[in-house]
Specification:
- The structure is a single chain.
- Strands 4-5-9-8 form a four-stranded antiparallel sheet, with no helix packed on it. A three-stranded mixed sheet has the order 3-6-7. The protein has a two-stranded antiparallel ribbon with strand order 1-2.
- Helix content is 44%, strand content 13%.
- Strand 4 and strand 5 form a beta hairpin.
- The relative contact order is 0.10.
- The chain folds into three domains: 115 residues, Acyl-CoA dehydrogenase/oxidase, N-terminal domain (Butyryl-Coa Dehydrogenase, subunit A, domain 1, Orthogonal Bundle), CATH 1.10.540.10; 108 residues, Butyryl-CoA Dehydrogenase, subunit A, domain 2, CATH 2.40.110.10; 129 residues, Butyryl-CoA Dehydrogenase, subunit A, domain 3 (Up-down Bundle), CATH 1.20.140.10.
- It is of the alpha+beta class.
């Protein structure tokens, strides 16, 4: 199938099965009720528009990155109720494809791609901050596998997840990056407790998750035992690529199209200052989109995106923070005065600090770009050679 043939198939399907943002009044896509999301994803997969680049033997469509890029462009105007699958299909799925056993690929990928099963990612911990390798959740060997104990935090869609990709410490006697293993954990196990976390917007997009004696079978290891840092970096790269190259969403509350519409509705479009600020929004948004398209095209040509995904993620997070100041400049006190038409913009502004932290802080992304893209010297790491159980943690 050529890219043009794919577009000719996808466009009418979207028009027949999905609603434009302009009709729903929604912003940035949504999760929707879980049953509705699963039913829609099932139809999407059956039509050939989920798992586009995955091999057919694992439930994918066996197409190229060019078709994926075409799909990203086509869906930019549509409100697809599939947000609950974003984490699983953007992070655990490609990691399983890259590092999983044949049995894991055949067991998990078809149901993950079709929406039958929801996945989450469990990395962050309350005491870890940006240092993912300082994790203290442990997995202890047993005769039949492992037992998992510990706590994770800021876990998206954990309340809906059937499975999760989790990293745990399996050898505390070696330096912190060496004694980590990634596992597949059943989120319905009685030893798993999920508690929602309410954020400034009043919603609960994240959760804290507790693991109390959760048994893991021997075949739950994803990658290699004690080589989980490699699996962690692999998944984080997929996360940053997913965030940074997802394509321009024309219903983004802080994007040009939405802001220009609001400005026109308020009769501000003749204000030269406002027009200049909108021009800045447009220029930056188009630059981000062009960079994402460049990385996707490079990937399609066989050149791995790698650490450049951090540059894309950083650029997107910086755009959100900057655009938040622009909308405050344009709309002033109206933004905080309870104007319903500005509610989505206000919620987006309030969430930007979190967006600059998700997937690694902006400072972490700058370090990655400096070290792995530009080849600059690494920051000194005073605890990198010390056995983890010898490191002193302050409380």
């Amino acid at each position: 199938m050529t890219t043009d043939e794919f577009r000719a198939k996808a466009d009418p399907w979207l028009k027949a099965n999905a609603k434009p943002f302009a009709e729903t009044g929604d912003q940035q896509g949504r999760e929707g009720p879980l049953d509705e999301s699963k039913a829609f994803m099932k139809r999407l997969h059956a039509a050939g528009f989920a798992g586009i680049t995955y091999p057919t033997e694992y439930g994918g469509q066996g197409l190229s990155p060019a078709e994926q890029a075409a799909w990203n462009e086509l869906v930019a105007d549509y409100d697809l109720p599939i947000g609950v699958f974003t984490i699983g299909q953007g992070m655990p799925a490609p990691t399983i494809l890259a590092l999983g056993t044949e049995e894991q690929k055949r067991r998990y990928l078809p149901k993950l791609l079709s929406g039958e099963e929801v996945w989450c990612q469990l990395f962050s911990e309350p005491d870890g901050g940006s240092d993912v390798a300082s994790l203290q959740t442990s997995a202890t060997r047993t005769e039949t596998g492992w037992v998992l104990n510990g706590q994770k935090v800021w876990t998206t869609v954990a309340q809906h997840a059937d499975y999760g990709a989790i990293i745990a410490r399996t050898d505390p006697t070696v330096p912190k990056h060496a004694g980590i293993t990634m596992f597949i954990v059943d989120m319905h196990d009685p030893g798993v407790t999920v508690r929602p976390l309410k954020v400034a917007t009043g919603t609960s997009p994240f959760n804290e998750v507790f693991f109390d004696g959760v048994p893991l079978p021997a075949d739950a290891v994803l990658g290699e035992v004690d080589n989980g840092w490699h699996a962690t970096v692999t998944m984080l790269n997929f996360e940053r690529i997913m965030i940074g190259t997802g394509g321009r969403r024309r219903a983004n509350p802080l994007g040009y199209d939405n802001l220009a519409k609001l400005v026109t509705e308020r009769g501000l479009n003749s204000d030269t200052h406002v027009r200049r600020r909108l021009a800045e929004v447009y220029a930056r948004e188009m630059s981000l989109d062009a960079f994402g398209q460049f990385l996707n095209a490079d990937s399609a040509a066989g050149n791995p995106i790698g650490a450049r995904g951090s540059a894309a993620k950083l650029a997107g997070a910086e755009y959100g923070l900057w655009a938040s100041t622009v909308v405050q400049d344009i709309f002033g006190l109206d933004l905080a005065a309870g104007d319903n038409s500005l509610n989505a913009v206000l919620m987006a502004v309030m969430s930007q600090s979190g967006m600059s932290t998700a997937g690694g802080t902006n400072e972490i992304q700058r370090n990655i770009v400096a070290e792995r893209v530009l080849g600059l010297p690494k920051d000194p790491g005073v605890d990198k050679s010390i056995p983890f159980n010898k490191i002193k943690f302050s409380r």
